[in-house]
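Researcher: I'd like a structural prediction for the single chain below. Treat it as a standalone chain; there are no partners to consider.
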Amino acid sequence: LTFNQLTLNRNKNPQMNRKYEGMLILKTQGSESSVDDLVSAVAKEMEEEGAKLDEVQQVGRKKFAYPSNKIDGGHYVNYHFEAEAPTISKITERLKLNNDVHLQHYRRVD
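Model: Treating it as a single chain, here is the predicted structure.
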């Protein structure tokens, strides 16, 4: 095989979906909507960017060890989903614009 044939074969392969876990801390202070509404709104945004949600675990509200951006605690939520690798950066950038998301962290599970 020549170099060009190898390059063409590699580009034809579809992206692999991998399993990810996302830990998000949602701001609930001063929020008019319920926690369930916030959790489902964030899940919807993730799905719009191409993630396929498997499970959503609400860990609950916890206080921080020290105030972060004048917030003393938040609602922790684990999102388990499948997505292609570039989707993670799309989700991260989109949720940075959401004022209800205080912190987000993603890791690959498989």
